[in-house]
């Protein structure tokens, strides 16, 4: 199945000013990351995202996965808001997107990537080579436990 997905897949880097893609990303993030918690992404201060880099994975021209990146320091990138459409989870879509992003971050000079991961995502990130550096940490905004994780990026 992963081979079929890769043939239909396109990954794009975008920003908040790319309104069509950004709004589709907001909808996906809200559906996957907020609604199950009884929250709405649209109640949050989204202006803090204006400088973020976003990446979207499209399957047959439909946004199926997205994540954001911001600079934590000149050598550390912070991954945030990673959402994959439920119907394509466990099909290699998230892994493909994260691999693409990691390669892009290396080209940009980053040496490490960090993420605040939900307990439900720990296994995915560990499979992708991330290690827990702290946690569990109570996330006041989302009212869930997070784990701070990191991964050293390898030169390509």
Automatic annotation (TrEMBL):
CDD domains: NAT_SF. SUPFAM superfamilies: Acyl-CoA N-acyltransferases (Nat). This is N-acetyltransferase domain-containing protein. Gene3D superfamilies: 3.40.630.30. Residues 12-154 form the N-acetyltransferase domain. GO terms for molecular function: acyltransferase activity, transferring groups other than amino-acyl groups. Pfam families: Acetyltransf_10. Signal peptide: none annotated. It comes from the Bacteria. InterPro entries: Acyl_CoA_acyltransferase, GNAT_dom.
């Amino acid at each position: 199945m992963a081979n079929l997905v890769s043939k239909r897949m396109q990954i794009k880097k975008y920003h908040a000013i790319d309104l069509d893609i950004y709004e589709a990303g907001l909808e996906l993030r809200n559906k996957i990351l907020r609604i199950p918690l009884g929250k709405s992404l649209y109640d949050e201060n989204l202006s803090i995202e204006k400088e973020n880099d976003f990446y979207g994975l499209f399957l047959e021209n439909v946004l199926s996965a997205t994540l954001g990146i911001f600079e934590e320091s000149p050598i550390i990138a912070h991954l945030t808001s990673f959402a994959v459409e439920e119907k394509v989870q466990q099909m290699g879509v998230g892994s493909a997107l994260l691999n693409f992003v990691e390669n892009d971050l290396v080209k940009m000079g980053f040496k490490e990537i960090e993420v605040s991961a939900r307990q439900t995502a720990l296994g995915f990130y560990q499979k992708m080579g991330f290690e827990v550096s702290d946690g569990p940490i109570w996330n006041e905004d989302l009212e869930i436990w997070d784990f701070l994780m990191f991964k050293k990026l390898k030169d390509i």
